[in-house]
C-alpha cells in the first residue's frame, strides 16, 4: 500500500507550531517520549516502547564455522524485520530502502563499535564459534524506529545468556540450563542511537521525532553513542545542508540523552534480574498494565 | 590488525604521507562518447568510473515521477575484480544498496533539482579498484561526470574521509588504515560554503575529538576541490581550443 501523504494543511500546521517551539504532543524540542522496557520470559527477549512506537528484539545463538579471515572470532548478525503489522506501508518480502537503512545503522552501531566481545564467542578456533543473531521486529511504527530499535537490540544483547560449553579435544558439549548456568555475553559498552530531525534548513531541530514530524522534516541525523561519550556511528540522511556547529550541537545533546537512556536500561535490567532471582513473576504478562475497565458487569453462566 | 603502527614517531603514515596529506588525485572528464557525461578518477589506488545520463524522460515505472523536481537515480557497483578477494555480487548486497542510497541523497541535495520537473537523471558509478575511500572517490567522480553532462549544481560536491590515530587526525585514509579498526569519518561538502551534504562515521571516536576530525575532513574536501576545479578548467579550455573558439 502506498503511504498516505500528509495534507498540506497539516504540514503547514506542524511547521508553524515548530516555529513557535511547540510540538504536537506537547513535548519540548529535546524531550524523548516515554520509554518502556519489558523483558520476555526467555532470556534475550526484549520489548521497547517509545511512545507509540514498539519494537521487539530477540537474541538467539547457534554454533557455526567462523569466517575465513577471522578464525577466532564469533559472529554477530543483525536483522531488522519491517512487517506490515507495524505500518501498511511496509511490504512483505524484499527489504525497502528504509529497512536497509535501519539495518545498516544498527549493524554499524553494534558490530563496528565492537560492543560485544566476539573473541569470547570462539569455541574451537577455525572450526566452531557462536553466532549471535539479533532479530529486531518492528511491531508498531510511530516514528523514530532507529532509536527504538537500537535500544531494544542492545538491551536484548545485555539480557541474553548463552549456554555454557565444554571442549574435550575436538568434541564440544553444549550444556543445558539444568546442567550449567548459562553465560552472559561480554558487552563492553552500550551504543545507543539518538535521532535528530531538522526543519527549515536546520533552523529547528527536534529529538525523537514522531511519525508526523518525520514526514515534515528536511533531514535527519543519527548519532550512536555510548555513555563514555564515544561516537559509535554518525549519519546524516535527507536532503539538507548542515554546518559543522550544528553537528557539534547535536553531539552535545546526544551525550545527555545517552546517559539518561543507559541509566534507564540498567535499571530495567536490574529490576528483571531481581524479579528472576527472587522468584517473582516476570515476562511480558507482568509488564502489561491493566488500568482500563473492560466490562462493568459480568453475568455468571448458568449451570445446566 | 593490531601491532601495525599507523603513524610513525616522525609523523609519517604507512604509505609515507603526512597526516593531512591526500593521496594523488588524477582525473579525466568525458571518457565515454555515448553517455551525456562521464568521468574517471584515481585517488591513490582507488579507481572509479562514473557516467551520467539525462535529464531524460522517466524510465520504468511512472509512479516514480516527481512533479516538482527531477528524479535522481543512482547505481553504485563494485567490479568483481576490485577487491583483494573476488566479489560475488557487484551490486545488490546491503553495502552497495546503502552506498546507492547515500549517493542519491548527496546528489539530490546538490543538484538544482527544481529545474527539471518530471524528468530523471541517472548516475552510474563503477568502482574498478578499491583501496579505501570508495564513497569519496565515487562522489568526486560523479560530480565531474555531472559537470561534463552540463547539469546545474549548487556547487561541486567534494568528499573526503578522515580518521584519528594517536591523537592526530589523518586525512584521506587508505584500505589499511580503514580496516585497522580506527574511526572513519566521511564528509561530502559544498566547498565554497563549507556546507555539509553528507556525513557518516563508523567505529568509535570520542566526542571531544569530533570537531578536529571534521575540520580536517572539511579542509581536505577543499583540497580535493582545487584539484577537481583545475581539471574541469583544463578540460574546458582543451575543448574550446579543439573547436577553435576564442576565450
List the defining traits of the structure above:
heterodimer, A: 304 residues, alpha+beta, six-stranded mixed β-sheet, four-stranded antiparallel β-sheet, 29% helix, globular, B: 247 residues, five-stranded mixed β-sheet
Short characterization:
The complex is a heterodimer of chains A (304) and B (247). Chain A is an alpha+beta fold. In chain A, 29% of the residues lie in helices and 29% in strands.
Percentage beta strand of chain A: 25-35%
Number of helices of chain A: 6
Number of strands of chain B: 9
Summed over residues and divided by their number, the pLDDT of chain B gives a mean of 91
The overall average pLDDT of chain A, rounded, is: 90
| SS summary, helix count of chain B | 4
Structure explained in plain terms:
The complex is a heterodimer of chains A (304) and B (247). In chain A, 29% of the residues lie in helices and 29% in strands. Chain A is built from six helices and 14 strands. Chain A has helices spanning 8-19, 97-112, 145-159, 211-216, 244-277, 284-287; strands at 35-39, 45-50, 53-64, 75-82, 122-124, 128-140, 161-162, 165-168, 171-174, 183-184, 192-199, 204-207, 219-225, 230-238. The longest helix of chain A has 34 residues, at 244-277. The N and C termini of chain A lie far apart (51 Å). In chain A, 38% of the residues are buried. The model of chain A has no long low-confidence stretch (mean pLDDT 90). Helices cover 30% and strands 30% of the residues of chain B. Chain B starts with 24 loop residues before the first strand and ends with a helix. Chain B contains four helices and nine strands, in the order E-E-E-E-H-E-H-E-E-H-E-E-H. With 247 residues, chain B is an alpha+beta fold. The chains are: A alpha+beta (304), B alpha+beta (247). At the A-B interface, helix 2, strand 14 and helix 5 of A face helix 1, strand 9 and helix 4 of B.
Amino acid at each position: 500500500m502506498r503511504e498516505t501523504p500528509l495534507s498540506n494543511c497539516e504540514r503547514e500546521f506542524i511547521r508553524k507550531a515548530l516555529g513557535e517551539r511547540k510540538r504536537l504532543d506537547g513535548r519540548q524540542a529535546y524531550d524523548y517520549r516515554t520509554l518502556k522496557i519489558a523483558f520476555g520470559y526467555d532470556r534475550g527477549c526484549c520489548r521497547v516502547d517509545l511512545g507509540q512506537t514498539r519494537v521487539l528484539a530477540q537474541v538467539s545463538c547457534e554454533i557455526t564455522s567462523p569466517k575465513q579471515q577471522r578464525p577466532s572470532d564469533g559472529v554477530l548478525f543483525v536483522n531488522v524485520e519491517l512487517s506490515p503489522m507495524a505500518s501498511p506501508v511496509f511490504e512483505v518480502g524484499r527489504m525497502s530502502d528504509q529497512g536497509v537503512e535501519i539495518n545498516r545503522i544498527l549493524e554499524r552501531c553494534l558490530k563496528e563499535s565492537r560492543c560485544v566481545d566476539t573473541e569470547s564467542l570462539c569455541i574451537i578456533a577455525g572450526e566452531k564459534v557462536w553466532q549471535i543473531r539479533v532479530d529486531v521486529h518492528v511491531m508498531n511504527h510511530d516514528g523514530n524506529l532507529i532509536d527504538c530499535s537500537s535500544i531494544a537490540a542492545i538491551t536484548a544483547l545485555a539480557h541474553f545468556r548463552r549456554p555454557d560449553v565444554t571442549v574435550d579435544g575436538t568434541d564440544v558439549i553444549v550444556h543445558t540450563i539444568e546442567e550449567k548456568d548459562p553465560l552472559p555475553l561480554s558487552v563492553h559498552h552500550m551504543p545507543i542511537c539518538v535521532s535528530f530531525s531538522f526543519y527549515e534548513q536546520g533552523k529547528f531541530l527536534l529529538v525523537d521525532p514522531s511519525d508526523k514530524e518525520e514526514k515534515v522534516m528536511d533531514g535527519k541525523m543519527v548519532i550512536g553513542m555510548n555513555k563514555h561519550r564515544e561516537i559509535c556511528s554518525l549519519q546524516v540522511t535527507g536532503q539538507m545542508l548542515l554546518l559543522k556547529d550544528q553537528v557539534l550541537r547535536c553531539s552535545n545533546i546526544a551525550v545527555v540523552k545517552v546517559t539518561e537512556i543507559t541509566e534507564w536500561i540498567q535499571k530495567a535490567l536490574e529490576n528483571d534480574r531481581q524479579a528472576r532471582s527472587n522468584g517473582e513473576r516476570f515476562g511480558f504478562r507482568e509488564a502489561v498494565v491493566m488500568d482500563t475497565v473492560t466490562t462493568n458487569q459480568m453475568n455468571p453462566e448458568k449451570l445446566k | 590488525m593490531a601491532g601495525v603502527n599507523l603513524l610513525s614517531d616522525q609523523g609519517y603514515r604507512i604509505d609515507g604521507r603526512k597526516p593531512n596529506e591526500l593521496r594523488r588525485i588524477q582525473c579525466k572528464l568525458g571518457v565515454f562518447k555515448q553517455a551525456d557525461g562521464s568521468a574517471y578518477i584515481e585517488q591513490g589506488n582507488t579507481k572509479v568510473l562514473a557516467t551520467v545520463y539525462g535529464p531524460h524522460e522517466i524510465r520504468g515505472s511512472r509512479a516514480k515521477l516527481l512533479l516538482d523536481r527531477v528524479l535522481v537515480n543512482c547505481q553504485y557497483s563494485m567490479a568483481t575484480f576490485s577487491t583483494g578477494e573476488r566479489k560475488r555480487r557487484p551490486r545488490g548486497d546491503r553495502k552497495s544498496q546503502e552506498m546507492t542510497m547515500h549517493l542519491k541523497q548527496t546528489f539530490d541535495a546538490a543538484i538544482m533539482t527544481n529545474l527539471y520537473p518530471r524528468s530523471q537523471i541517472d548516475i552510474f558509478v563503477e568502482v574498478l579498484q578499491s583501496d579505501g575511500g570508495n564513497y569519496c572517490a565515487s562522489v568526486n567522480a560523479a560530480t565531474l561526470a555531472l559537470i561534463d553532462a552540463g547539469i546545474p549544481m549548487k556547487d561541486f560536491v567534494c568528499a573526503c574521509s578522515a580518521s584519528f590515530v594517536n591523537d592526530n587526525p589523518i586525512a584521506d585514509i587508505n584500505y589499511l588504515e580503514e580496516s585497522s579498526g580506527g574511526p572513519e569519518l566521511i564528509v561530502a561538502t559544498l566547498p565554497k560554503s563549507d556546507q555539509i551534504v553528507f556525513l557518516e562515521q563508523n567505529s568509535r571516536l570520542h566526542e571531544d575529538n569530533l570537531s578536529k576530525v571534521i575540520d580536517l575532513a572539511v579542509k581536505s574536501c577543499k583540497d580535493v576541490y582545487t584539484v577537481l576545479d583545475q581539471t574541469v578548467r583544463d578540460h574546458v579550455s582543451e575543448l574550446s581550443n579543439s573547436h577553435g573558439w576564442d576565450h
